[in-house]
Specification:
This protein has helices at residues 11-40, 49-73, 127-132, and strands at residues 7-9, 75-77, 94-98, 104-110, 121-123, 140-145, 148-158. It is of the alpha/beta class. It folds into 2 domains: 7-77, Transcription elongation factor, GreA/GreB, N-terminal domain (Helix Hairpins, Orthogonal Bundle), CATH 1.10.287; 82-158, Chitinase A, domain 3 (Roll). A hairpin with a 2-residue loop joins β6 (140-145) and β7. The longest helix is centred in the N-terminal third of the chain and has 30 residues, at 11-40. It is elongated, with a radius of gyration of 22 Å. The mean pLDDT is 90.
């Protein structure tokens, strides 16, 4: 995998990838193959909706399985509770931030596969996470956003 970055991920995030992979490979894909085999035996495949849809869905599942396999192979599992310097923002840290207008925001740095911005979980390689890496309470970091630059001050840092 030339050029692909290491996929830093928490133990929980890795377990979620593994669970999705196992469910697709062990449950959904075999059932779909069975439906396709049954539909293929029903004659004309050109107008057979079960067959056509089944083949399309099988390709989608195979693409997803391939993607998950690559992500798991590149994964580097890091337990946030074992970070040596808990006074600074590193992988797994939860940080409370304040902008110039004193609007507060709490974010947790997680693996890119675990990111969910609506829940405050931002990917390790996102612009905000890259800017916050290594920051301590009181540090001000500038983040380049599509709408322009924004400054965030670190108000608190915590780990699970």
């Amino acid at each position: 995998m030339a050029g692909e970055r290491s996929n830093i991920i928490s133990p929980t995030g890795f377990a979620a990838l593994r669970a999705e992979y196992d469910a697709l490979l062990g449950d959904e894909r075999p059932k779909l193959v069975e439906v396709i085999s049954w539909a293929a035996g029903n004659g004309d495949r050109s107008e057979n909706g079960d067959y056509i849809y089944g083949r399309k869905r099988l390709r989608e599942i195979d693409r997803r399985l391939s993607f998950l396999a690559r992500r798991m192979k590149a994964a580097r599992v890091v337990d946030p509770a074992e970070q040596p310097d808990k006074s600074r923002i590193w992988f797994g840290a939860t940080a409370e931030l304040a902008d110039d207008d004193d609007a507060r925001r709490t974010v947790t740095l997680v693996g890119d596969d675990e990111a969910e911005a609506g829940d405050g979980r931002i990917g390790w390689n996102s612009p905000l996470a890259r800017a916050l890496r290594g920051a301590a309470v009181g540090d001000v970091r500038v983040v380049q956003l599509p709408s322009g630059q924004k400054q965030w001050e670190v108000m608190a840092v915590g780990y699970p």
